[in-house]
Amino acid sequence: MSMIKEIGRGLSGLEQLRAFIAAGQRPGIAVSLDFDLIEADEGYAVFAGKPGPHAYNPMGVVHGGYSAALLDSACGCAVHTRLTAQQGYTTLELKVAYHKAMTEETGLVRAEGRVRSIGRRVAFAEASLIDVQGRLYASATSTLLVMDA
Description:
Blueprint: H1 3-7, H2 13-22, H3 28-33, E1 35-41, E2 44-49, H4 64-80, E3 87-98, E4 109-118, E5 122-131, E6 136-148
Antiparallel strand pairs: 1-2, 2-4, 3-6, 4-5, 5-6
């Protein structure tokens, strides 16, 4: 069973994520890449992290997978906020555009995800990865499968 389901059994998706944040929980990916879910509202989720050498590629900049992980998480959790206690989701497709390279000097970044539309079986979401000055580093669109848990 997922960490979110353990904490929020019987709660809506939004209630689950808020309980997860309040409990200070971090799944393995967030520990490994050092980022956190910091905000959840109806159709909206925000992750924040500080890129650094732990996420560098051999060229000395932050690997694109770091951005993709934050953006995928933001899109997925934005959709999660719209689900019932009996539903789950999985990402079917993630398209990422990289706008600017990151290094440890970039500082704190936020991946802000929003639901664009959600139906009985499919959801569409988008996310942007920005720094504290509002500079865009990456953006993504996502298609997600909504299913019974």
